[in-house]
TrEMBL record:
Residues 458-602 form the Helicase C-terminal domain. ATP-binding RNA helicase involved in ribosome assembly. Residues 602-649 form a coiled coil. GO terms for cellular component: cytosol; nucleolus. GO terms for molecular function: ATP binding; hydrolase activity; RNA binding; RNA helicase activity. It is an enzyme of class 3 (hydrolase). Residues 152-198 have a biased composition (Acidic residues). It catalyses: ATP + H2O = ADP + phosphate + H(+). The lineage of its organism: Eukaryota, Fungi, Fungi incertae sedis, Mucoromycota, Mucoromycotina. It comes from the Eukaryota. This is ATP-dependent RNA helicase DRS1. It holds the Pfam family DEAD. Residues 254-428 form the Helicase ATP-binding domain. It is found in: Nucleus, Nucleolus.
């Protein structure tokens, strides 16, 4: 100890020590404490700044966000993991059957080659230049690359060729379309007559009386979410998923929703409607009473996949709050959902059928304290197919609730909206209804009446030659989507299917594979047409034109989202002329094009399809056999459970439904008739 005498040791009595401390506390402790407080405040502020400024966060100038490994995390992996443990007998994997078939085919080809080589050892020159060599070369290409294997064509060249061909055929097609179109327009005008003006005036007066006046809508546009005076946890949640500035629908919806008013909101697909209703819900829930837990918000979605996505978005936006969520959809464990509902989560995201099941059969779960009811894709929910379920849900909710309806094709039909018991709703229609996204390029491929059988060949030609990645193909039926999945597999195209005949785990797995780029094509029915937000989709192909124009808008809305560019290609038949005119009317005519697929190319792929017809049948036969085996195993498991746990199973109360079997069948028939009526020509 420099500066001190080592021999000097100062001792102090205990009483002296106490006295010194008391003297310090009177004169200096206060000053010392203030200094310490200032230092601790500076340190805390510094640490908070470090936490807020996360170096892994980056903004995307296109309007989306990237966070943690550049992935948007409203995916389906978490939900799919829950299903794996619950699956007793795994479903048949069609990819395994296709891979097995291709392996057998390859072995057969190799065997034929060996036999040909052994037979022609003495004629080497003829074996190289003869017919056998040409066949083997083609077979090798087919095994590696599918139909048209070995042919490489740039996308730009194919598009230029198609434009040149379209100029050659434009005069003929336009003249025919104009002649038939004029006849249809004249007949429509005669049928409508002058009564339309009176009807329209009556509807205008009804809407004027039903909806809140436009003066109630705020006109202010916000440059950022911070300008909306949102709470800091909400702003941090928005930043964590890359939301930079509010969209038009968000600017108008959030202030009105925070006032507690009923809303009918409409905007084009990909405009941020989910965040438009989730953000004000989270802001209001931050100030909820916390003495007793209760479910205050219900969000309804028409499909399971959309409900999973909305739940994931809401959870991530609320990641810096203590708000609890629960997902209630079909295909997931009922018991697991019951346990979550017992905890009284603040927000329940559900599909109508499973929600009613829980309301009637889950103990201690009710909607009596529901303060906010939200319906995503409300126009679909208001259709006849959901009428009975929707009426039951509305009856279970208190009348004093706030109700918000959103859709890209939102209806303002007063008769339909009356079902929801809305109270002077504010109408927030950002874009004209029935309008496609501004940056969507729409292409149409004409299929003549006598060429309807060429649709599969046209689709294969488009996928093999031009659109090779991030493509969704929509079909009218589940069977067509499944059969084309087999064809794509045998042709060497990586594809996943999404339709109602799959288990929930398979459906979520297909979406996850397509999102992660493990497959290039998603073959889907209209199950995937509403609300799904998968970043980077380049092309949407409509194998069939849907029978309703609103459904067409939802399909093509899977691309060109959030201000990005996108393309749709639709195969148009003679019966689809009316919808084609609507599509042209609803978009910029410069972005509507006629694509021509060369006749030689169609003939080539048609021949390839005919060559694999038997292989497709073999795969489908193998799949049926595996399905029968799986069903047998499931019945065996069920019988074992009944024998082992008979007392427990029979002691449970029977699950009830709000309709009798007769009423349920009747409502199902009504929905089926409404669906079939759309396809009548």
């Amino acid at each position: 100890m420099s500066g001190f005498d080592d021999d000097f040791i100062h001792t102090i009595d205990e009483d002296d020590n106490v006295q010194v401390i008391e003297e310090l506390s009177e004169e200096e402790v206060a000053v010392t404490t203030n200094k310490k407080r200032k230092v601790s405040k500076k340190a805390a502020k510094k640490n908070a700044t470090k936490e807020d400024m996360d170096n892994s966060f980056t903004f995307n100038i296109e309007g989306g966000g990237a966070y943690k490994n550049n992935t948007m995390d409203w995916d389906f992996a978490t939900t799919r993991e829950k299903l794996k443990a619950e699956t007793l007998v795994p479903r048949t994997n069609i990819d395994d059957i296709i891979a097995k078939k291709l392996k057998e085919k390859k072995q057969l080809k190799n065997g034929k080659k060996r036999k040909a080589i052994e037979a022609d050892e003495t004629q080497e020159v003829e074996a190289v230049n003869g017919e056998g060599a040409n066949i083997s070369d083609n077979d090798e290409d087919l095994a590696v690359d599918g139909f048209g294997g070995g042919v490489v064509e740039d996308e730009e060249e194919s598009e230029n060729d198609s434009q040149d061909d379209s100029e050659a055929e434009s005069s003929e097609s336009e003249s025919e379309e104009e002649n038939q179109g004029d006849q249809n327009d004249e007949s429509d005008d005669e049928a409508n007559g002058e009564d339309d003006e009176e009807v329209n005036q009556f509807e205008i007066e009804r809407k004027k009386a039903y909806f809140a006046p436009d003066s109630d809508q705020p006109e202010m546009l916000y440059e950022s979410f911070s300008a909306m005076n949102l709470s800091r946890p909400i702003q941090k949640g928005l930043a964590s998923v890359g939301f930079v500035a509010p969209t038009a629908i968000q600017c108008k919806t959030i202030p009105v929703a925070l006032l507690g008013k009923d809303i009918c909101g409409g905007a084009v697909t990909g405009s941020g409607k989910t965040a438009a209703f989730v953000v004000p819900i989270l802001e209001r829930l931050l100030y909820r009473p916390r003495q007793t837990a209760t479910t205050r918000v219900l969000i309804l979605c028409p499909t399971r996949e959309l409900a999973v996505q909305v739940h994931s978005v809401a959870v991530k936006l609320a990641s810096f709050t203590d708000i609890q969520f629960c997902l209630c959809v079909g295909g997931l464990s009922v018991k697991g959902q019951e346990l979550e509902l017992k905890q009284k989560p603040d927000v329940v995201v559900a599909t109508p059928g499973r929600l009613i099941d829980h309301v009637r059969n889950s103990p201690s779960f009710t909607l009596e304290s529901c303060e906010i009811l939200v319906m995503d894709e409300a126009d679909r929910m208001l259709e006849d197919g959901f009428a009975d379920e929707l009426g039951e849900i509305v009856k279970s909710c208190p009348k004093s609730r706030q109700t918000m309806l959103f859709s890209a094709t939102m209806t303002d039909n007063v008769d339909q909206l009356i079902r929801m018991s809305l109270q002077r709703p504010v109408r927030l229609m950002i874009d004209p209804s029935n309008q496609a996204a501004a940056k969507l390029t729409q292409e149409f491929v004409r299929i003549r009446a006598h060429k309807e059988a060429d649709r599969p060949a046209v689709l294969l030609a488009l996928c093999k030659k031009t659109f090779k990645r991030k493509c969704i193909v929509f079909f009218r039926s589940k069977a067509a989507a499944h059969q084309m999945k087999i064809v794509f597999g045998l042709c060497g195209l990586s594809a996943a299917e999404l339709h109602g005949n799959l288990s929930q785990e398979q459906r979520l797995e297909a979406l996850e594979k397509f999102r992660d780029g493990e497959v290039d094509y998603l073959l889907a029915t209209d199950l995937a047409s509403r609300g799904l937000d998968i970043k980077g989709i380049e092309v949407v192909i409509n194998f069939n034109m849907p029978q309703q124009f609103a459904q067409y808008l939802h399909r093509v809305g899977r691309t060109a989202r959030a201000g990005r560019n996108g393309r749709s290609v639709t195969l148009i038949g003679e019966a689809d002329r009316k919808l084609l005119k609507m599509a042209v009317k609803s978009s910029n005519k410069q972005q509507v094009k006629h694509r021509v697929v060369p006749a030689e190319l169609i003939s080539k792929y048609k021949a390839k399809l005919e060559a694999i017809t038997e292989e497709v049948k073999d795969v489908m036969k193998q799949e049926k056999e595996d399905k029968v085996i799986r069903q047998t195993e499931m019945e065996l498991k069920k019988s074992e459970n009944l024998l082992q746990h008979a007392n427990e199973i029979y002691s449970r109360p029977a699950r009830t439904w709000f309709q009798s079997d007769k009423d349920k069948k009747k409502s199902k028939d009504v929905g089926m008739q409404a669906y079939k009526s759309m396809f009548k020509k």
